[in-house]
Design goal:
Nucleotidyltransferase, domain 5, 9 helices, 3 domains, 5-stranded mixed sheet, alpha/beta, single chain, 5 strands
Length: 264
Amino acid sequence: MSRTVSVSTATPYGVERVCEVWEQARSTFYERQERAEKLAQGIRPGKRGPKPLVPDEELLDLIRGDLAASPFRGEGHRKVWGRLHFGQGLAVSRKRVLRLMRENRLLSPYRGRQGEPLTHEGTISTEAPNVMWGTDATKVFTLDDGWVWVFSAVEHWNAECVGWHVTKLGNRYAALEPISQGLTSLYGSVGADVARGLLLRMDHGSQYLSDHFVKQVKFWGIKPSFAFVEQPQTNGLWSGSIELSRNRQSMERSSETSRRSVVW
């Protein structure tokens, strides 16, 4: 634009006039022009401003040396910066140490799983009914009642829902409702040892880890069978049944009440 010739004066507009019209500083124009020329020559421009006393390459070597001398494995950037700043007297910022450690993958690693990964080659379905049930909870949104909890229990033999309960308060008492419904429907009672030998697959939610829930299912003769942590496949039959219910509901109109929101 600055090299464009004016029709009236037959002279170029110039950088000063163009920057004044665009309300841009000329220093910014020249800096970007210089940066573009260096990039065209394959020269990567460095960081603007004053240079630090300790270059990045030298500081990186000091960081590696500090990590190697540490008796611990997986040090964070705060400890490294503290030993360099206060121990060795280096005037470096903590964020600069963090940047260098992040760019060179020197930050403390997250704790990962050890051992062989689980392949989930087995099956959780049973050969006969009333051998194992699965239970869990989810939340759905309804027009009248807002967010509600949906607790349910399914049979691992044919994925049949044996009981379900919708409530606004998803506590340990609500988690027992579908189990109680299934026992009443299939066993005819909720007395002591009425379902002795039945396994109940569930996750590690607070409702299912509570003393009240565990003691109650044991009173019925049910043996708790907890799923593996962060392994939703081990309670896959319940997840599949609730997903089927959601897919069926999505093809219908929005539910108007909390009880109509569950479609089994």
